[in-house]
Amino acid sequence: MRTAVSRATRAARHSLPSRRHASLSPLGFVGLGNMGGPMARNLLKAGHEVVAFDVSAANAERFVAAGGKVLESPLAVAAAAKTVVTMLPAGAHVLEVYGGSKGLLADGGAEQGSLLIDCSTCEPAVGKQVAALASRRGAAAVDAPVSGGTPAAEQATLTFMVGGPEPAFQAASLVLQLMGKKVVYCGDAGMGQAAKLCNNLVLGITMAAVCEGHALAGRLGLDQQKLADILNTSSGRCWSSDTYNPCPGVMENVPAARGYTGGFACDLMLKDLGLATSAAFTSSPKLGLPMGGLALQLYSQMSARGDGAKDFSGLYPHVSAGETKKS
């Protein structure tokens, strides 16, 4: 696969979008949901014409209202734009959008010199498969999952973790910088996905730890704001506390301040922890993830109680109420 991708990279090296080309050409976007919608709108704000597709009529209407153009399929998007960004729920959706009969890589879609940037979170193997499919058409593909959640998507402060051929990474950076504050090259195809799974493994665990810390503070009668101030200036400091605190009343403009609505759904965290666990199990030699396994159980219990659509920081009410014991 490395050889096939390398051949495609050499063939497309001189036809990838340049900075001038990117500024003049329309950009494509597939997937206008909670993350993809604001990302695509940031491309509009940067002055680009953007053509897009989404299966949701409501998402499409919001994008049109923001000044974008919606087409009838991913294939139509790839035919209209040399560079296409995708933001999709899971690996199965990615494979369909890229490899389906109306997909980006179907006849009449992406071609020699096209650049495909997948910002979804899925298995590293999916990133490698998409790269191989793209190489057969002379196109270049990178996996570029994101970190930062919906606030960062709206504010264009996302971090992108990118895997793929380095020339394609350089070309993709021109677009990604319009939607984020940091773009990191992680290596070959699939390595962006690998980095994202490792990041979200740590995120899921640290959020559970912050929830437990605040739950204990409540039991002991410690003021929650004082605990947060201490955590955020001492050895317990982490993103889950200083940027996305799960305890209501501690921080404004986070899901905990609005009933755990919006943000990053518990079921999506479950998906990512499941992918990380699967990747560890299939690694050679196999790797145990004891902390990750416990976090997976906690979010599974939260989802089973009907809160899978709530933000994953909504684990806090379950922990503070003592509802995480096995029945």
Automatic annotation (TrEMBL):
<dbReference type="InterPro" id="IPR015815">
    <property type="entry name" value="HIBADH-related"/>
</dbReference>
<keyword id="KW-0560">Oxidoreductase</keyword>
<protein>
    <recommendedName>
        <fullName>3-hydroxyisobutyrate dehydrogenase</fullName>
        <ecNumber>1.1.1.31</ecNumber>
    </recommendedName>
</protein>
<dbReference type="Pfam" id="PF14833">
    <property type="entry name" value="NAD_binding_11"/>
</dbReference>
<dbReference type="GO" id="GO:0051287">
    <property type="term" value="F:NAD binding"/>
</dbReference>
<dbReference type="GO" id="GO:0050661">
    <property type="term" value="F:NADP binding"/>
</dbReference>
<dbReference type="GO" id="GO:0008442">
    <property type="term" value="F:3-hydroxyisobutyrate dehydrogenase activity"/>
</dbReference>
<dbReference type="InterPro" id="IPR011548">
    <property type="entry name" value="HIBADH"/>
</dbReference>
<feature type="domain" description="3-hydroxyisobutyrate dehydrogenase-like NAD-binding">
    <location>
        <begin position="190"/>
        <end position="316"/>
    </location>
</feature>
<keyword id="KW-0520">NAD</keyword>
<dbReference type="InterPro" id="IPR036291">
    <property type="entry name" value="NAD(P)-bd_dom_sf"/>
</dbReference>
<dbReference type="InterPro" id="IPR006115">
    <property type="entry name" value="6PGDH_NADP-bd"/>
</dbReference>
<comment type="pathway">
    <text>Amino-acid degradation; L-valine degradation.</text>
</comment>
<feature type="active site">
    <location>
        <position position="196"/>
    </location>
</feature>
<dbReference type="InterPro" id="IPR008927">
    <property type="entry name" value="6-PGluconate_DH-like_C_sf"/>
</dbReference>
<dbReference type="Pfam" id="PF03446">
    <property type="entry name" value="NAD_binding_2"/>
</dbReference>
<feature type="domain" description="6-phosphogluconate dehydrogenase NADP-binding">
    <location>
        <begin position="27"/>
        <end position="187"/>
    </location>
</feature>
<keyword id="KW-0101">Branched-chain amino acid catabolism</keyword>
<dbReference type="GO" id="GO:0009083">
    <property type="term" value="P:branched-chain amino acid catabolic process"/>
</dbReference>
<dbReference type="InterPro" id="IPR029154">
    <property type="entry name" value="HIBADH-like_NADP-bd"/>
</dbReference>
<dbReference type="InterPro" id="IPR002204">
    <property type="entry name" value="3-OH-isobutyrate_DH-rel_CS"/>
</dbReference>
<dbReference type="InterPro" id="IPR013328">
    <property type="entry name" value="6PGD_dom2"/>
</dbReference>
<comment type="similarity">
    <text>Belongs to the HIBADH-related family. 3-hydroxyisobutyrate dehydrogenase subfamily.</text>
</comment>
